Amino acid sequence: MSGTERRRGGGRYPVAAAMELTTDLGPESIPGEFWGEHTSPVARALLSSAVQCFARKGFHATTTRDITAVVGLSPGSLYVHFASKEAVLFHIARTGHERALAVLAAQQDDGDARSHVRRLVAGHVSWHARHHTVARVCQYELAALAPEHLGEVLDLRQRFSAMLRTAVERGAREGVFDVPDIDRAVRAILSLGIDLVRWYRLDGADSPEALGESYAELAARMLGAPSPTGEGPG
């Protein structure tokens, strides 16, 4: 993974230095339904405000006043909807990981290992680009979670890795991929989606879908697969 990594509960997650992250997040809008149908409109607004605050300032530098001011509420009103500021972060991290995992789970295996891995990577990267502000918080603020909440999020992250690892292992068995260390390859590929949240903007040169397709081809080359046209990397 990109940035500095810390271990906790048997997992890895990146912890970025503030200077590595751009504060120019670009025009990302989070639809209310992103947070789930059982989340109230006010709670949705608080979550969306918290995403912007955490992404720009970091969890610890963000105050409850920062979060509620955007919604036009008093600082104490946050506790009507959430037990703590950490509970807000957990809701964001859990929801973001669940949404991203659902995208990967929806990529059907058609029996072609190469195309399956490409779809997994394209989905992973395009989701992180489309939701780069939420994804930044999900990737870089995990150190602030309580141990029990961190454990839940790390379980979701393990499912990410396992899904991609299974596809790569099958491709290696079938001779589609030539990769000496599958674990390292999987970590490197997942890092493609994680790293872009530091700099991506929706109004930049690449759409989320275009970036996903480009990174999917890079991942296939990393695994030693030929290009779709049969041409080698040279």
TrEMBL record:
Keywords on record: DNA-binding
PROSITE patterns for this protein: HTH_TETR_1, HTH_TETR_2
InterPro entries reported for this sequence: DNA-bd_HTH_TetR-type_CS, Homeodomain-like_sf, HTH-type_TetR-like_transc_reg, HTH_TetR, KstR2_TetR_C, Tet_transcr_reg_TetR-rel_C_sf
DNA-binding region: 63-82
GO molecular function per UniProt: DNA-binding transcription factor activity; transcription cis-regulatory region binding
Gene3D superfamilies noted in UniProt: Tetracycline Repressor, domain 2
Ranges for domain HTH tetR-type: 40-100
A Pfam short name: TetR_C_24
Domain of life from the UniProt record: Bacteria
PANTHER family, per database record: HTH-TYPE TRANSCRIPTIONAL REGULATOR RUTR, HTH-TYPE TRANSCRIPTIONAL REPRESSOR BDCR
The protein, known as: Transcriptional regulator
Gene source species: Amycolatopsis camponoti
